[in-house]
Amino acid sequence: MSHQSKERTLIILKPDALQRSLMGEIIQRYERIGLKLVGMKLVVPSAEHVEQHYTLDPEWRRITGEKRVKAAKAKGEVLKTEDPYEITAVILDNLKKYMTSGPVVCMVWQGAHVVEIVRKLTGGTEPRSTDVGTIRGDYVLDSYMMADADSRAIRNLVHASGSPEEAEKEIMHWFDQNELVDYRLIGEQILYDVNLDGILE
Ligand code: ADP
Ligand code: MG
Question: Which domains does the chain have, with CATH numbers?
Fold first, then answer.
């Protein structure tokens, strides 16, 4: 197995993050915890590219539909359907409109436990109910209720891969190999080197 510090994840700053001038604030959170940026670009994705992205994981439609049903039950809401595939057919359509509405910033970040740590910093899908201190909890206030009422996707600023396997597939979907840079970040010595020597003169 390669060293833990080589794990990678895909982060996308969604159109609302750019429109609200939050790029710097958001990137700072991933940067200051000690992660390394190894790829970055500004793109306006096509609807087809977005659909492919969300269906790279064949289980995404079931899981995301079930998550919506669970959130509805917790709030006593009644949904038009509880079929996860019917629910996600609508979500996918709305996601395509959302994600193609303007430029997004795609990034690959690297570091130990990066997938888990980035999800923790990013917060849960629904800004309304996710924790204070997370990006989605601190910078935006959208809810399932508002998204449903207006037939649109939840605006939650960021996409972050859900598992290391999903991350590798997503990275290949958005980046060419030659767009990713292998380099040394001086701060990594303090995070990962076995001995902290060479500090004192
Ligand atoms: P996450 O981005 O937290 O991993 P999912 O993978 O379940 O969440 O869904 C992808 C994106 O689709 C979400 O970030 C959100 O923008 C949108 N979305 C998910 N579920 C819903 C829903 N029930 N209603 C509206 N939009 C949704
Ligand atoms: Mg997801």
Answer: 4-192 (3.30.70.141)
